[in-house]
Amino acid sequence: MTWIVYILECADGSLYTGITNDLDRRMRAHASGRGAKYTKRRGPFTVRYTELLDSKGAALQREAAIKSLDRTAKKALLTAGP
C-alpha cells in the first residue's frame, strides 16, 4: 500500500503536515472539519506538497522529519518538491 505525506497551506497561511493512504478522502475530512483538530477552523486548504512512500512506518518517519523543520525549511521543501 502506498502512503502519502502531505503539506497543506491553510487559509491563515499556516502549514499542516499529515499522512494518509487516500488523499481525496483525507481532504474531504479536513474540509468538513473532521480531519484534524489543527485544521478544524483554518480552511480552505491547498495541498502544497505530496510525497509517496511504501509503508506507513516510512510515512510516519518522514512526517516527523518534516514537522521538525522550521517554517523557512518547510517553504524551501515546497519549492524544491520531493
Keywords:
single chain; 82 residues; alpha+beta; GIY-YIG endonuclease; three-stranded antiparallel sheet; 38% helix; 28% strand; hydrolase; UPF0213_domain; GIY-YIG_endonuc_sf; Endonuclease; endonuclease
Q: How would you describe the overall organization of this protein?
A:
The chain is α+β, with helices and mostly antiparallel strands and 82 residues long. The protein has a single domain, classed as GIY-YIG endonuclease. It contains 3 helices and 3 strands. The protein has a 3-stranded antiparallel β-sheet with strand order 2-1-3, sandwiched between helices. β1 and β2 form a beta hairpin. The longest helix is centred in the last third of the chain and has 12 residues, at 56-67. It is globular, with a radius of gyration of 12 Å.
Mean pLDDT: 95
Compute the number of helices.
3
Query: How many domains in all?
Result: 1
| Poorly predicted regions | none
Helix content: 25-40%
CATH homology superfamily name: GIY-YIG endonuclease
> What strand order characterises the main sheet?
2-1-3
The name of the CATH architecture is 3-Layer(aba) Sandwich
Distance between the termini: 19 Å
What is the class in the CATH system? Answer: Alpha Beta
The secondary-structure element order is EEHEHH
What value does the Rg take, in angstroms? 12 Å
**CATH topological fold name:** GIY-YIG endonuclease
Overall 3D shape:
globular
| Biggest beta-sheet profile | 3 strands, antiparallel
GO molecular function, one term: endonuclease activity
Organism: Nitrospira defluvii
InterPro entries: GIY-YIG_endonuc, GIY-YIG_endonuc_sf, UPF0213_domain
Protein name: Endonuclease
